[in-house]
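This part of the workshop introduces the protein records we will be handling. Getting from the letters to the tokens is the skill we practise here. The record below serves as our worked example for the rest of this section.

…
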Amino acid sequence: MNDRLDNAIRATTAEIVSAAPLPPSNPVSAATQRNKIPYWVLPTLVLLPVFGFMYIRALTGGAASSPGPLTDGAALYSKCASCHGAAGGGVQGQGYQFSDGEVLATFPRIEDHIRFVHYGTDQYRLAGVAIYGDPARVGGPHITGERGAMPPFRDELTTAEIIAVVCHERYTLSGADPSSDDYVEEYNTWCSPDAVLYSALNNGELDLVDNQSTEIQIDGTDITVTPIGPSPIDGSSRE
């Protein structure tokens, strides 16, 4: 009788022990005891990248959002960078250097610069124009087709976009000083944020290709320019 009772007690004890849950392991126990993230922290974490973006924009947004040909030209210059380098340093065997005043030496007058980008090398050859820039250039003039073929951009860019790229090449890459006697008039006419000529071209109010007049009036302002014209012409020195 006692044996049967002892056996029954042992069996019941074994069942209770086997049914009891095992104690949690150390990592699980640590996780359950760790402090929980407060519910209000989650929205803050989600918004942190937004706050960071707004902070950066507050510090740097002014220059990046300034309108005008220099800003527009910087964005468009990627079309030229493969031949002339991202910073205008030139590419061996392809495009000439623009930086350190080089493009200004070739094109002392912005109209010649714009016209060459507009028509490209082949049209200059067809027109029999051998020197597309300053014929008295220090170091020698640049001869049409002497170093690769400049593609025409008249079918890819508007006149206003070509002017924007040219302004970027002259003032940002080549370093023309817009406050100097040599460039202040050019800058105010073509490349400043308030340039009425650029604005008129950008709005489609002016045509410098078919319009061959050198005297232009825009918003009551008289402007003297050499238009692009219907075909390439010889380059010129600074007057």
User: Anything to note?
Assistant: The CA atoms of residues 24 and 32 lie 10 Å apart. Confidence is low (pLDDT under 50) at residues 53-65. Residues 41-64 form the longest helix (24 residues).
